[in-house]
Amino acid sequence: MPKRRWPPDMSKLSPKHQFRLERKYRRRAALKFARPKWTKATKLVQWGVIGFVLVYAFLFMEWDDKGSPFDEDVAQLRRAFFASVKGAFSTLPPAPVQRSNDTAKDQ
Length: 107
Prior knowledge:
The chain is mainly alpha-helical. Helices cover 64% and strands 0% of the residues.
């Protein structure tokens, strides 16, 4: 049996057979060129950049000097956010040491 010629002469094939070959080739090409790790990494990077820009714009960026009705709300939110971050990463001061009355009697 001789080897089939590739690509086949599409003008000699029936429309049904042409469609089958095109569908098979499209599926195989999609499988061959699919890069799921690349797609996932790209999506993660895109969402990371979007999140970073939103957080930066909301917490760190100074928008303008004119002032707006929301300036005090944003400033209050910033203070609350940074206070919670500071509280999460810092330790509480030690409790003061109190002397009991028993030690005063012994001396």
